[in-house]
Design brief:
By secondary structure, the chain is of the alpha+beta class. It is 29% helix and 32% strand. It has helices at residues 11-27, 74-80, 122-137, and strands at residues 33-37, 40-44, 51-55, 58-62, 67-70, 85-89, 92-95, 99-103, 106-109, 114-116. The longest helix is centred in the N-terminal third of the chain and has 17 residues, at 11-27. The radius of gyration is 15 Å and the shape is globular.
Length: 139
């Protein structure tokens, strides 16, 4: 109906993602980060960020229901965010918790977003992400 998503997803998918986020927030207390952007301070829980995309000297944090633009380069955010995040592309830092599939030259996130993988780094990215995801399953 009146969904406001950049990628069209069903209500069922939205409810599933909300359930995942609620369960995740119960498991560990959130350590929030303070990030500056657009004249405001944003206090965010990194575990709720699906992925980060950089455009020039700014970065866009993509959540399930909103996006926030901050005044940080992706390299700085990579150092600030926990190990659950992986730099799959020079312009994208992804939260591995929300990876749904690793396919030839792209990653599909749980919200349906496609993250490109550079052709020359595909095997390296696939191997590293597969290891991270397997380690999470075995915990």
């Amino acid at each position: 109906g009146d969904e406001v998503f950049p990628v069209r997803i069903s209500t069922q998918t939205y409810q599933y993602m909300q359930k995942m986020l609620a369960e995740r927030s119960k498991t560990a207390p959130a350590k929030k980060l303070c990030l500056k952007g657009g004249g405001a301070n944003f206090y965010i829980d990194p575990s709720l960020v699906l992925y980060i995309e950089t455009i020039e000297a700014k970065s866009i944090l993509h959540f399930l229901d909103k996006n926030i633009t901050v005044n940080y380069k992706i390299g700085m955010l990579e150092k600030m965010f926990p190990d659950d995040f992986y730099r799959a592309h020079r312009s994208f830092l992804i939260n591995t918790y929300y990876v749904m599939a690793i396919e030839r030259y792209h990653i599909t996130m749980n919200n349906g977003q496609i993250i490109p993988i550079p052709e020359k780094r595909y095997n390296e990215v696939k191997k590293a992400l597969s290891k991270k995801l397997t380690d999470k399953i075995n915990l």
